[in-house]
Design a protein that fits this description.
single chain, alpha+beta, Jelly Rolls, 2 domains, eight-stranded antiparallel beta sheet, 6 helices, 15 strands, about 25% helix
Length: about 400
């Protein structure tokens, strides 16, 4: 029995790696999924350098793609204004690297407007405890100026649950109360998705997820129109963008380390997702197939042939299929003509092409009785190249 050479083993490993990290591997696209499973034609995630965690003494660093709304610099007060019409400079103060509410000065809002986001901020209620329930360390974080995530000193301070710290005010109480003592810094990490309406019909109610000091307190909570004081809100459309507002409720609450990261569009509003509408899926599959065909045009030989075969997994194309079928027919004929004592050197390429053909016939992109596939299968069988099952 012939022992595999190092060259053959290397080719085999390369072939396995290529299929495990490329085409003809996972289940193919379908009517509502534009990509195959484990599809290398999907865009690679954007590289983001992570930030650092905060301590009580020092705020952490935001991730590299964060948009900083307040990082502790006095001049950053210029990113904010009083929540009035017409707008005017805010009377809130920057002291010792923190943004502090001046009671009686009114809400403050960002000049910048944005929408769906990951929002991070840290706040601290006065260390001197005064008042109780809603009168103690009260403020609020208003996403797009429309829906409030409550800020309140609820450390040993009960209040109505849908108005406690990290509640979606007037809608949903927090799942837990993980607040630190008054005067200490509390961390909010918020994922916000606004409602989506079309022609007056709600397609997506919008959601908020909140972590307080690393503890989940709102788990994908529907917005139900945004909430409010005393009256139940009803589903409604939000504007496309809006400012971040911080509430003046008569307490000198402090804020630091405020930043956000915009989130991509959801599938329902034209964004990309693993599961999409049939129309959006068909359009995306056509786009992917076109890109693959353009890439194939730069290649030669079997690389071009396989890339064109890959394209038909996304969209049928007569020209691409005809070229690839002619190429694989020629390849099979050439391999049949290789002398028996030379065929081992072709093992890696034959297995590579045959595995692609097995995939394409399994999922009905090509007919099962494809002559080129049968010829290559015969070579594999004659040379006993089929992997042996592992013994149990």
């Amino acid at each position: 029995m012939n022992r595999p050479t190092l060259h053959t083993l290397a080719l085999s490993l390369l072939t396995t790696a290529a299929f495990a990290d490329g085409a003809f591997y996972g289940d193919p696209p379908d009517a509502t999924h534009p990509w195959a499973i484990h599809d290398m034609n999907r865009a690679q995630p954007m590289r983001v350098e992570p930030g650092t965690f905060s301590s009580q003494e020092k705020p952490g660093m935001p991730p590299s793609d964060a948009i900083i709304l307040f990082g502790g610099k006095p001049e950053e007060i210029e990113k904010w204004q009083a929540d009035k019409n017409p707008a005017e400079p805010t009377k809130w103060e920057v002291k010792d690297g923190v943004l502090q509410c001046v009671p009686g000065s009114g809400y403050v809002r960002t000049k910048e407007e944005f929408s769906d986001c990951q929002l991070h901020l840290e706040w601290s209620a006065p260390s001197k405890v005064e008042g109780n329930s809603q009168g103690r360390g009260n403020s609020g974080v208003f996403l797009m100026g429309q829906v409030e995530v409550q800020v309140l000193d609820n450390y040993n301070n009960p209040s109505y649950p849908d108005g406690m710290a990290s509640s979606i005010y007037g809608i949903n109480p927090p799942l837990a109360n993980p607040l630190r003592a008054p005067g200490e810094w509390q961390t909010y990490d918020i994922i916000f998705r606004r409602p989506i309406f079309k022609d007056g019909v709600e397609l997506d109610p919008g959601y908020i997820t909140v972590f307080v000091n690393g503890v989940l307190t709102q788990d994908h909570t529907p917005l139900e129109g945004g909430g409010g004081h005393m009256r139940r809100s009803k589903p409604r459309a939000f504007p496309d963008q809006g400012p971040l507002k911080l509430q003046d409720h008569g307490n000198p609450v402090r804020y630091r380390n405020i930043w956000y990261r915009p989130l991509p569009k959801r599938a329902i509003e034209g964004g990309e997702a693993s599961h999409m509408s049939e129309a959006a899926t068909a359009a995306k599959r056509a786009e992917i197939a076109k890109n693959i065909r353009e890439d194939a045009a730069k290649l030669e030989g079997n690389a071009k042939m396989l890339r064109l075969f890959e394209s038909i997994c996304y969209e049928a194309n007569a020209d691409a299929q005809e070229f690839a079928l002619t190429a694989v027919k020629d390849f099979a004929a050439a391999m049949k003509a290789v002398p028996a004592d030379k065929i081992e050197a072709q093992k890696g390429e034959i297995l590579h092409v045959t595995k692609a053909l097995r995939y394409l016939t399994q999922f009905k992109f090509l007919p099962e009785d494809l002559a080129a596939k049968q010829e290559l299968e015969a070579i594999i069988k004659a040379n006993d190249w089929e992997p042996k099952p592992k013994k149990k």
